[in-house]
Amino acid sequence: MPFPSWLSSTCVSSDTTVTISKTRNNVSSSDTSTASEIPSTSSSSSLPSNFSLQTFPSLPSLQKASSAEQPSSSSSTPTPLLHHLCLSSIRPHHPCHVSTLALSNSLLYVASSNQVSVWNLKTLSKITSFNGNGKGSVKSVAFSNGKVFTAHQDSKIRVWEVTDSKRRHHRLVTSLPTVSDRLRRFIFPANYVRVRRHRKRLWIEHADAVSSLAVSNGVIYSVSWDRSLKIWSASDLLCIESVDSAHDDAVNAVAVSGDGTVYTGSADRRIRVWGRAFGGKRQTLIATLEKHKSSVNALALNSGGSILYSGAKDRSILVWEREDSANYMVVMGVLRGHGGAILCLINEGDLLFSGSADRTVRIWRRGSGDGYDCLGVLEGHERPVKSLGAAWEGGERVVCAM
Predict the structure, then answer these.
(1) In this structure, what DSSP letter does residue 2 have?
(2) Does the N-terminal peptide bond of residue 177 adopt cis geometry, omega within 30 degrees of 0?
(3) What's the pLDDT tens digit per position in 72-91?
(4) Helix (H) or strand (E) holding 337
(5) 296 and 253 in contact (C-beta within 8 Å)?
(6) Interior CA angle at 126 toward 120 and 127, to 5°?
(7) pLDDT tens digits, residue range 371-383?
(8) What pLDDT does residue 77 have?
(9) Which residue in 231, 301, 240, 304 sits closest to 271, CA to CA?
């Protein structure tokens, strides 16, 4: 069943539910007749039976955010608002809180503890679920080369293969690092690094929870609370590089641009930029970005990789832009409005979505100048919004938050 023609966004939270909402564009800020723009509940007859239809609270007044932390003067051109409608709340059948989600080919992967369930975004029906086989929760989900990669709190990355066309069966292929990768390295002392005072590990192993995954050009990038950044080949599932002390504290987020530039955000309040300088074969530190006053929890890049968004515990979102063609970044703006720590960010098209500990999702769009407009606030979650995902379905933007 196709999406309704007016569907454009979806949201999910760290409670046990996943909520689906609609975004309606092209309504000017001077338009006060919001009720007529939203389909009535009588249209729910065309929706699947597991949809629940309810409206979000009224949109707040328009807010501008720029490098000066105060709202700028209103623009002569009215900024379009976005209207939202809660279409459905998906409640996974496991009692634990939802920890992360990801979107792939009209499928929504929802992780709750070490259980992962797969939902069809078109019908919002559950397809299957599989056990992550690890201790602790699934922290991140990524996709590459037709495989599903799950990052776990037990320091492992597990690789799953879909065994049928309907994606009803997920078979565990291996855990990273693989057994063969360990065997060919464990004999040589040079392959060990110190992780604690009296403890060593192979450099290919994470020593703590794997907090985030990113995929670019067939390469998997993983970061961990053990302060490291590791790089894996998605084709042969080998660890090809490790930066063991990428930060001075736990690494919470990673983002990768199309040209291979890697950004890592940490509890040490820093964002570090990594790349293969001068054609080198190893990742080297290009720059350290130090403007946040507390732990950096989330990173997102625009489609071209020229703009980096970073969210932190200090409730701010910083907008970084590259200077000319260099990889050095400067702060061009600060987005404020959330009442709690920023926990997740995602950029989709011309919109930035931010999820926060204040249990809301805010939607931002760059205005005619350097400022950003807050187009709307999604409310209704009972717990902090910890994860976001985005995709296009039937020409409409679909965003999931949880």
Answers:
(1) P
(2) yes
(3) 333 334 444 555 555 556 66
(4) none
(5) yes
(6) 75
(7) 888 988 888 788 8
(8) 40
(9) 301
